[in-house]
Amino acid sequence: MPADTTDIDDIRERARRWLDDDPDPATRAELRDVLDRLPSSAPDLADRFAGHLTFGTAGLRGPLRAGPNGMNLAVVTQAAAGLVGWLAAQGGTGPLVIGYDARYGSREFAERTAQVATGAGRPALLLPRPLPTPVLAYAVRRLGAVAGVMVTASHNPPQDNGYKVYLGAALGGDLGAGAQIVPPADAGIEASIRAVGPLAEVPLGPPGQVLGDDLVSAYVERAAAVIAPDGARDLSVAYTPLHGVGAAVLTAAFARAGFPVPGVVPEQAEPDPAFPTVSFPNPEEPGAVDRLVALADATGADIAIANDPDADRCAVAVRDGSTGWRMLRGDEVGVLLADHLMRRGVTGLYATTIVSSSLLRAMCAARGLPYDETLTGFKWIVRAGGGSAPLVFGYEEALGYCVAPDMVRDKDGITAALTVAELAAGLKAQGRTLTDRLDELAAEFGVHHTDQLSVRVDDLREIADAMARIRAATPTTLLGHPVEATEDLLPEADVVILRSPSARVVIRPSGTEPKLKAYLEVVEPVTDGDVAEARTRAQTAVKTLRAEIATALGL
User: What's residue 1's pLDDT?
Assistant: First the structure.
């Protein structure tokens, strides 16, 4: 239906006021073009002014475009002013440290944030070049910063960018020192952003201090020290940063730890904001690691590793018999890392999320180690247990792993890759593989097979309708067995959990995409040592479970 003329006039007037305040000539020209093309451009203009990008616990993330509903210099200036004002209001002292990736606009947004900070009288420290998100999270702790900003959209499409905030110890507390913000900080920062006046009145100071490479070297040295110094190192690794910023830091960390330097997919080795060889820069997406697997196969690599573009996630592929390679699920890598740390004698709290496999819970129970599970997101994982025991490992099934919480209190794809390599090299020295260790865990604890039902929608009302449907007509059986427990996490979270003796389903809207997700898990015991047969049963059961849940959701 065409927009009402009155609506167009109102949006046009708001756009003109925005134009007057926009400090960037490029986005002013972009918005003028949209205005000049009215009325045909009315839907585009309306979308740009449908609201402001909201500052939540993931900070800001959105498409690069002019207007308040996009990532641009005006929005970043306002966000930086609001953040700096909020830090001052909380009595936070110390520098603001700022990192950025290689996406379009990232450096410009980081430099503007530094100018806003210094203009308000706060020291600003810029990382020396585009670097992984875990380096920024590490810098917040190492430099005693009041907070950190990372300009990145992680594994989003090329046209997006984002703005993540970390707090230092003074405002984040012991558990949140160097971690992403959680409520009520997000709401406080959002309110402070909305209170910022005309951008022309935001004072801009000098560009801040650009840090030297000694910070990166310190991160590399600490990362290499995460693994034991005297372990096996004979391992051939194929690697891709997926056109992101991980390659230089990861290869340096591998060399510092004594591993052969991984072979890097040449077409994807250098940062490139266009991500030209992948349709979607996420190692979980179909086709994203095809070049990596080809390199691993051609070079006879033992394992293949991929980081996402900001290198906070880590994907691992292994040889799958004589048929080629397969990507390990996040849950598989998570339990492999946890088991490895346990075998190394690392004691303390092990944590994951409500949508991850229940195998970690079983492992901790059998080995007498504290365990906790949280809502999704590393901002919650690093605060698991509420301080009842020191966190030593956390993971989420979406390829995020924290193997050294005292170093980086967030997911870290570099230290995770090193720890995977340590485990794989040790197993190789014994004539074994990562899949052999997975089979051993299955024989001990049963096959915990996980999968997802993920549905992308064009209209968010479809998600709300499906969640209402599952609450109104909750299944009473799963795979023919009675549902023994149903949990509805409203109002804290829009999550429904169903449990039966052999299955678990967690249903929730995605926090970052227009998707409804159902996380499926089936547990099959291993009889007479036949792991392969139990895996086959589990795979069949998960397919049936997916169909049951799709029907229940009306999808």
Answer: 38
| Residues whose CB is less than 8 angstroms from the CB of residue 83 and which lie 6 or more positions away in sequence, other chains included | 147, 149, 165, 189, 192, 193
**The predicted structure's pLDDT at residue 301:** 97
124/164 same-domain check: yes
Provide the 8-state DSSP code for 408.
-
CB 177 within 8 A of CB 183: no
Residues 88 and 176 in one domain: yes
Mind listing the pLDDT tens digit for each residue in 503-541? 999 999 987 678 899 999 999 999 999 999 999 999 999
> Tokens 């301080």 identify what position?
387
Give CA–CA dist 475/488, Å, rounded.
Answer: 13
User: 315-349, pLDDT tens digit by residue?
Assistant: 999 998 766 899 999 999 999 999 999 999 999 99
Question: What is d(CA 371, CA 415) in angstroms, rounded to the nearest whole number?
Answer: 22
Instruction: Indicate whether 145 belongs to any domain.
Output: yes
Residue 308 or residue 9, greater confidence: 308
SS (H, E, C) 386-399: HHCCCEEEEEECCC
Q: Using an 8 Å Cβ cutoff, are 196 and 82 in contact?
A: yes
**Is the residue at 327 inside a domain?**
yes
Q: Is the pLDDT of residue 486 over 80?
A: yes
**Residue 473 falls inside a structural domain:** yes
Pairing of strands 124-126, 209-210: parallel
pLDDT tens for each residue of 345-372 = 999 999 999 999 999 999 999 999 999 9
Where does a domain end: 391, 414, 444?
444
- Residue 58 has a pLDDT of 76
Give the range of the structural domain holding residue 170, as residue numbers without chain letter.
Answer: 54-211
Question: Containing H/E element for 509?
Answer: strand 503-509
Q: pLDDT by residue (tens digit) across 274-285? A: 999 998 999 999
* 412/457 same-domain check: no
**Total count of domains within the chain:** 3
Please name every residue paired with 394 in a beta bridge, in sequence order, or none if there are none: 351, 402
Supply the CATH number for residue 524's domain: 3.30.310.50
Query: Does residue 484 share a domain with residue 429?
Result: no
Task: Give yes or no: 154 in active site.
Answer: yes
Residue 422: exposed, middle, or buried by beta-carbon count in 10 A (0-12, 13-18, 19+)? buried
The answer to the question of residue 139 being in a domain is: yes
Average pLDDT of the segment spanning 9-14: 92
* β-pair type (147-151, 96-100): parallel
Please, what is the Cα angle at 412 between 393 and 147, to 5 degrees? 100
Give residue 354's pLDDT. 95
- Cα-flanking dihedrals φ and ψ of residue 126, to 5°? -100, 135
> Which residue among 41, 106, 154, 217 is the active-site one?
154
